[in-house]
């Protein structure tokens, strides 16, 4: 049995956000992944809202960056939420969006060691230990959480080989980024398994998804998001593995001048087909099954902007759940 979950990026005003997680709760979503984008809405506050207003939906604090949130603070937040709502909280670490970090003058160079330290500190704190850590990035001098031990899974958002192997070696789960092709998911999972060396690591992946009887309408909903994410140089291997033809240089140039019409025009039907789950209900259901077969235990619906679309997507993939 595989899970299907939903996500929110912090851009939704209160009524829209409430409608999204209510649709997720009613439609059988396993959890909601709440993004930590600087200057958007805070994921810890949003998690409190979801947990208090729903009865079973779990929450994941998605990609808390140790460059902006000290791992002690991140562990405190997750542990406190879990103390009130046991078994419904996941802590996910990630480096953070380069644009976000640049906007506050933070250079996340050589992130592997800081991330490894963040995982070590959080793991020990959530295990109820008194932590003594004297690392190159973080120091904790003989302190423990007031909550005591909390059973909070720790996930690492990763896309590069070393970070993926770290997820396999040191985290309970891995989160693979949106716009990933099925082929790239397989490549990622190879690296996770290499790091895991036989231990079980749960795999989740963000997937831009849109459902409509009109395939053009469905594709139009994800075109801008694919343009935004696939312009990144780090997606070059993702594109190559899928055999996708995309002029990334032209895409970056269009985005730099805020010409989103030109950027979207570069996202062909081929790109949409290989880097999202978009189309009619049967097509979306089949695409989710492909992502599951590539190694994902959990497909996380990304990019859905309203409760109605989330409800439609969850209804479409019910046979997958």
CATH class value: Alpha Beta
Distance between the termini: 7 Å
Segments where pLDDT lies below 50 for 5+ residues?
Answer: none
**Main β-sheet: number of strands, strand sense, barrel status?**
8 strands, parallel, barrel
Number of domains: 1
Order of helices and strands: EHEHEHEHHEEEHEHEHHHHHEHEH
Cα shape: globular
The count of DSSP E runs of length 2 or more, i.e. the number of strands, is: 11
Strand content: 15-25%
Structural write-up:
There is one protein chain. This protein has helices spanning 14-27, 43-53, 71-84, 98-103, 112-126, 161-170, 182-196, 215-230, 236-242, 248-256, 260-265, 269-275, 281-293, 307-316, and strands at residues 3-8, 31-35, 58-64, 89-93, 131-134, 139-143, 154-157, 173-176, 202-211, 277-279, 298-302. It has 321 residues and is α/β, with parallel strands linked by helices. The protein has a single domain (3-211, 277-320), classed as Luciferase-like domain (TIM Barrel), CATH 3.20.20. The strands form two sheets. It has an eight-stranded parallel beta barrel with strand order 1-2-3-4-7-8-9-11, surrounded by nine helices. Strand 8 (173-176), helix 7 (182-196) and strand 9 (202-211) form a beta-alpha-beta unit. Helix 6 (161-170) packs across helix 7 and helix 13 (281-293) crosses helix 14 (307-316). The protein is globular and about 60 Å long. The termini are close together. The model has no long low-confidence stretch (mean pLDDT 96).
